[in-house]
What we know:
By secondary structure, the chain is α/β, with parallel strands linked by helices. The chain contains 9 helices and 11 strands. The protein has helices at residues 13-22, 28-31, 53-61, 72-77, 119-128, 144-147, 162-166, 186-191, 193-210; strands at residues 3-8, 38-40, 46-51, 67-71, 83-87, 93-99, 112-116, 133-137, 153-158, 170-178, 180-184. The structure holds 1-O-pyrophosphono-5-O-phosphono-alpha-D-ribofuranose. Residues 11, 140-143, 156-163 line the site of 1-O-pyrophosphono-5-O-phosphono-alpha-D-ribofuranose.
Amino acid sequence: MSLRIALTKGRLEDKTLTMLEQAGYGTEKVRNKGRALVLSDTVHPIEYVLVKSNDCITYVEHGAADIGVVGKDTLLENEGDYYEMLDLKTGKCCFIVAALPQAQLFSKKGRVRIGTKYPHVARQYFLSRNMDVEIIKIDGSVELSPLIGLVDGIVDIMETGSTLKANALQVLDVVSEISARVIVNKASWKLKKDEITQVLADLKKAVDQNA
Ligand code: PRP
């Protein structure tokens, strides 16, 4: 196997596979993976592994995978040593600040509490607004935390906006746009430059076709 690619499971999985298929890669084994964790491409000498988003960075950073496909949200939240090479322009969503209408988040007297799965992104955002906030880390369904009084507002991902709408939360600001990105291990970029350049070129063609 000449290259190993770490794909992020879940939200990005189908979108990434579709893009690889458009680029001419054979992802049937990944689509029909069952409980298998390492899957080979049926066209190219490539091996895929399916991992959680944070682990995608870890595997690429340490060279266990040459290439990774992961959301910009994960890259913004975590430090990491890799090259970010390509925006796949799929899996688009954004980081937002949201709250109940009565929360008056930006004018509230006293310390504001923010619930988020992304403490680093949230801290940076409120620092840039000169607001000293208390960040409370929530692992899932972040939208619940302001509804039952744990926090004054949230920093979270919005894709369709339906979760916010269903819970009467208002978007107060957009922190940044997010999409799937291709990252590359630094040593692999030196040692396997031709193979990696080919994969990037194939994917770029698919991105351009979708534009
Ligand atoms: C994400 C995010 C929101 C939701 C937004 O959660 O944290 O809860 O999706 O999507 P929408 O704008 O299309 O409604 P995810 O489903 O990834 O996991 P979680 O609920 O466990 O946090």
